[in-house]
Write a structure and sequence with these properties.
The complex is a heterodimer.
Chain A lengths: L2 E11 L2 E11 L5 H11 L19 E4 L2 E4 L12 E4 L6 E3 L2 E2 L2 H9 L15 H10 L7 H5 L1 H4 L10 H11 L9 H5 L12 H5 L6 H17 L2 H6 L6
Parallel strand pairs in A: 1-5
Antiparallel strand pairs in A: 1-2, 3-4, 3-5, 6-7
Chain B lengths: L22 H23 L4 E2 L2 E2 L18 H12 L2 H10 L31 H21 L2 E2 L2 E2 L3 H18 L2 H9 L10 H15 L2 H23 L10
Classes of the chains: A alpha+beta, B mainly alpha.
Chain lengths: 242, 249
């Protein structure tokens, strides 16, 4: 007889809700998303959950498992001791059950100046020049980094800070060897890189193991410091010709 | 059953063991708190850190040689201490442990508390990190000079426990200093295009090397802090006569 585990799954919407307990038979190698599908198939057909690839590639099934932001498809049941609580991402408004409204992220994405090539494509680029940007392109937009970021999650400072996802987006463009736009003032002011206090939670939860803080946010802070906090560099800087 | 590619999970039936969440903040507060108290005590209550050919890192360079007798350590330690205080790793450590901002990831914070990150005083001054780096590099040169001098005894070349401690200390401090994010930015991180810069291979190699060291910056931060602490304590105990230096050679 299969082992049974209890999943406490949030059921509700913007007006409120509560966790409902479901008993699920466990199979070898089962992940939380499998268990949620099992519940959907046998006990609660109206349970709302966003998913797509079931292979940690699409970034759709982000949720909080026992309070930790995770991809449900990448979280094995046998890695969790005791009760299993599954809730929607806290940083975003709930639509229903485990589905959240992440449209705020797309609004922020629109505000970032897109790639502005210095010369018409095709161009020659060397690996050493593009490898930093390549790391950031691994992002699957699961928004777990946005969810765990305490600036957005606990302080609701969505007007002051774009969040780690868009810091790596800016870094990706800003460090691109053929990009001619200057996003440093934007990074400092509108995107609010100064709101980040580099506690690296975004880096800890990233399922793609992107070094968001060390390779994107801190280098961006250093670029802002070049402009705004380093009079010695300012003295020797050539006038920018874009 | 679906098994996502690259799934990071323990083997079936084995749970991933983790320290309780409070271990990190309690450990950080204890270590940084004790080191701060020790630093204040050492700086404000001693007029010398010299024991024969050994000079404590708190007192290097020895400003008494240019006639400054009043609290000689205070003229020196401000730079490396502010370098540490504004270091990106220590910022993470103290924001989490001292200010609970956040205590651990995804842990609810005290509601209603205003948060401005590093956009207002005093934390906005962390942007001055690079200046403390520049000054610390100068201090490092003196520490290397002291480490070499620690092997030169009145009878000639020799090796004492103190010599080895001072050498280990300056090596750890050098790795910590030159694995810093500000140095990483300086050697190449500020470039968008290595190939377009002068000396592209050199800049890229330097940046890659510093990036590699930078991955363990936290480890170097702790090891070098304890090595400074241990070296100073050893020399202080020699000065006060509690210990006698052991000559190995």
């Amino acid at each position: 007889m299969a082992e049974m585990r209890t999943l406490h799954v949030f059921r509700g919407d913007q007006s409120g809700g509560e966790e409902v307990a479901y008993e699920v038979p466990v199979e070898s190698g089962m992940v939380v998303l499998d268990a949620v599908h099992q519940i959907q198939a046998t006990q609660a057909p109206d349970l709302a959950v966003r998913w797509n690839c079931k292979a940690a590639r699409c970034g759709s099934c982000s949720a909080e498992v026992n309070g930790h932001p995770r991809l449900m498809c990448k979280t094995r049941l046998d890695a969790i001791e005791g009760e299993i609580h599954v809730r929607p991402m806290k940083a975003f408004p709930v639509i229903r059950d485990l589905v959240t409204d992440v449209s705020w992220n797309y609004e922020k994405a629109k505000q970032i100046e897109p790639f502005a090539p210095k010369e018409p494509a095709p161009f020659t680029m060397y690996q050493r020049d593009v490898e930093r940007s390549q790391q950031f392109r691994k992002c699957i937009e699961c928004f777990l980094c946005q969810d765990v970021c305490h600036v957005l999650r606990e302080h609701s400072a969505k007007e002051q800070y774009f969040g780690p996802r868009f810091m790596i987006k800016i870094a990706e463009l800003e460090m691109h060897p053929m990009d001619g736009a200057d996003r440093v003032p934007f990074t400092s002011h509108q995107a609010g890189v100064g709101m980040c206090n580099i506690t690296k939670c975004c880096q800890e939860v990233c399922p793609e193991h992107i070094h968001l803080t060390d390779d994107a946010i801190i280098p961006l802070k250093e670029r802002v410091a070049d402009r705004e906090w380093d009079p010695i560099r300012a003295l020797f800087r050539k006038p920018a010709v874009r | 059953m679906a098994q996502p590619a690259g799934v990071l999970a323990p083997a079936p039936g084995r749970k991933k063991w983790e320290w309780p969440w409070w271990v990190s903040p309690v450990g950080t507060v204890s270590a940084l708190g004790l080191f701060s108290i020790y630093s204040v005590w050492e700086t404000l209550t001693h007029s010398s850190g010299q024991y024969h050919n050994y000079l404590s890192p708190f007192f290097s360079p020895d400003v008494r040689s240019i006639g400054i007798q009043f609290l000689p350590a205070i003229w020196v330690v401000w730079a490396p201490l502010l370098f540490r205080a504004t270091c990106y790793y220590y910022r993470k450590a103290y924001y989490r442990s001292f200010f609970a901002d956040p205590l651990t990831c995804a842990r609810p914070e005290r509601p209603g508390r205003s948060y401005t990150g590093e956009t207002r005083l005093p934390f906005v001054l962390n942007n001055l990190h690079r200046f403390f780096f520049y000054v610390t590099v100068v201090v490092m040169a003196f520490l290397w000079y002291d480490a070499v001098r620690a092997f030169i005894f009145p009878s000639g070349f020799g090796i004492g426990v103190g010599s080895l401690l001072m050498l280990l200390n300056v090596i750890l401090l050098s790795i910590y200093t030159f694995s810093c994010h500000a140095f990483r930015h300086l050697v190449g991180g500020s470039l968008d295009c290595f190939s377009c810069a002068r000396g592209p291979i050199l800049r890229y190699s330097l940046w890659k090397t510093v990036s590699k060291w930078n991955q363990d910056h936290a480890t170097w931060a702790w090891l070098s802090m304890f090595s400074v602490w241990g070296t100073d304590l050893y020399i202080r105990l020699l000065i006060s006569g509690v210990l006698h230096d052991v000559r190995l050679f």
